Prior knowledge:
Blueprint (H helix, E strand, L loop, with lengths): L2 E4 L2 E4 L11 H8 L8 H15 L3 E5 L7 H15 L7 H16 E2 L7 E2 L3 E8 L4 E8 L12 H9 E6 L2 E6 L2 H30 L6 E10 L11 H33 L1
Parallel strand pairs: 3-10
Antiparallel strand pairs: 1-2, 4-5, 6-7, 6-10, 8-9
Amino acid sequence: MIYSKAGPVLIAINPFKDTQIYGRDVIASYRQKTAGSPHVYTIADTAYNEMMRDEVNQSIIISGESGAGKTETAKIAMQYLAALGGGSNAGIEHEILQTSCILEAFGNSKTSRNDNSSRFGKFIEIHFSTSGKICGAKIQTSVTIAASLMGCRAEDLMLALSTRKIVAGKDSISKKLTLQQANDTRDALAKFLYAGLFDWLVEQINKSLAVGKQCTGRSINLLDIYGFESFKKNSFEQFCINYANERLQQHFNRHLFKLEQEVLFSLLL
Length: 269
């Protein structure tokens, strides 16, 4: 058993192996309510039904340490929503499921804790029509810097990576960088360009999954954030990632314990 529940929160353990608890037959049993054990499908089914019944957009937040299986859980939830929203193997539902392969190919890398770690966070907005069919989707990433084609000569690039310009009034002075500074500049530029490539991929995917006119504003959102990691030397970026995870965990704890307290108080009164 890899799933359990604590109030409205689903707790999942990464089994680090393929398990036979997913697929069309299992999806069908949860859709028909013949299976009632804790599962990602239950969470996705609840979100879908509440969206359709109350006409209120829903969100599914997935958190955990690096390697906990957050991205796989998001894909499993998307598979269930795709089945509810159409189930076609050639339509928009199929395209949404295939986006994960593209983004992971360019956005994942090996770390000390995970051989296939997501190096990006993504927010997937799946839109539904009034009849409950998927009519489009949109992906957002935390990357805000847009890279563009440099269009410069090799000499200019080498100069930019090895020197820096200091401007004082109308005068400017070029100063050579140290080897470490030049390496840092090179790495920063590489990250900048790769961020541009990744943003371009997201943009192309969003064009393919563009929301049609039949959508009414109903949507279910899945948030797959960066995983918590702690190294001997942590960057400011890692600090922000860990802080966001801690705040999210704090929200879960407060929300869960508050609900449990309310249930206990109601039983005592």
